[in-house]
Amino acid sequence: MYLFSIVEFDEIAGTITIMGGLYYSWYDTRLLWDPSQYGNTYEIVVPSKKVWVPYIYYLNPADNMVPVGKKYFTNRVYYTGSVMRNVGSIMKTTCDVDITYFPYDEQTCEIDFYAFGYTSSEVYFQISNSQVDMFYFRKNSQWNVQSAIIKPHDNVEFNGTITAVLVLKRHPEYFTVNILIPVLFLCLLNPVVFLLPAESGERISYTVTIFLSLAVFMTLVNDNMPKSSKPMSRLSIFLIMMIGSSTMLCMLAIIITKVYFREDSNPVPNWIIKVLHTMKFKWCSKLLKTKKVKDMVHVHDTSQTVNDDNVYCTKEQNIIFKGDFRNDSYQNNDKRNDENDHVLEKISWKQLSREMDQIAFGYSVFFLTVTCTVFIVAGLLA
């Protein structure tokens, strides 16, 4: 077999169209002659309709089942009875597409050839060269031929069948530049929403814009892949995760903006502060202050500001102490009550929203980093 070019590889339809042909020969004892009796003629060219020809079909056509090569192809007959036939054709066959690692995928297409009308005992294929002839092959701008071989069919029931195996690897530069890199840039912009001032009023429109942009890229990717569930492209899974992340960030931006504009007449519940502390994995200096209290301190007058190395509160706020603060026994129980002597500061809703921004930004950056790293490593190991 020889291969001239890859005309088209349609991943969506699951078909491949190639320009190639077959070179095969057989022996016909009825075509023996003595060259000396015929003017030293050693070979002649005979039309196909004048001699017996085993027409070869491919078993997995995408359209109609037709033999390889037209009937008007001629045959070269040698005086030994050997007949050689060299036919070319545009072959459109089916191909199972695996898009798991799209656009860094590798496809394996098989073309089965069979001589219809004959049993394996009547017509048997003997492969003289297992490598497909690529001498006249013209390179394709989208696909690179990794290997091309001819082998007997794997199924013993198809004894009289040979299989051409083409391994194609995609050139990923187009999809990398036009889809992957822009998607990664959009994903990097996602966490930045929490760095925008809440009072600007642009957070919601910002996140919605990124969400719609990712949805557009999702559509572009789906247009270049077959509509199948198995196997599923990892790029599609990655985009779904990023769209889901963008949805969550949009919801968080709405919640944080609502918190920012809430009136201070309603104090921030203590359980919210504790939840934020847990999510930050440490005591936040603006929310929860841990210290050893040497003296009993209680502020009754809220009309003034108290500033001390250990105490901080603003006007119109009170300090709330939690723990055992008895003056006569605290110093003696210092070590015992270390974990119980926490000063819980009342904060405003605006301060709370800023703390929520920090937490949301940190978690979103962590999620984005892990997801992108896993996706890139999986693509490199493909």
Largest sheet at a glance? Answer: 5 strands, antiparallel
What would CATH call the homologous superfamily of the largest domain?
Neurotransmitter-gated ion-channel ligand-binding domain
User: Low-confidence parts, pLDDT < 50 over ≥5 residues?
Assistant: 283-344
Kindly state the percentage of residues in helix. Answer: 25-40%
SSE class: alpha+beta
According to DSSP, the number of beta strands is 14
Can you tell me the overall shape? rod-shaped
Radius of gyration: 38 Å
- Assign the CATH class of the largest domain: Mainly Beta
Task: Enumerate how many helices there are, as a single number.
Answer: 5
From N to C, what is the helix and strand string? EEEEEEEEEHHHHEEEEEH
CATH arch. level architecture of the largest domain: Distorted Sandwich
What share of the residues does DSSP label as strand, in percent? 15-25%
Across the major sheet, the strand order is 1-2-6-5-3
Characterise this structure.
It is a single chain. The chain is of the alpha+beta class. It has three domains: 170 residues, Distorted Sandwich (Acetylcholine Binding Protein, Chain: A); 109 residues, Methane Monooxygenase Hydroxylase, Chain G, domain 1, CATH 1.20.58; 59 residues, no CATH class. Helices cover 28% and strands 24% of the residues. The chain is built from five helices and 14 strands. A hairpin with a 4-residue loop joins strand 11 and strand 12. It is rod-shaped, with a radius of gyration of 38 Å. About 16% of the residues have low confidence.
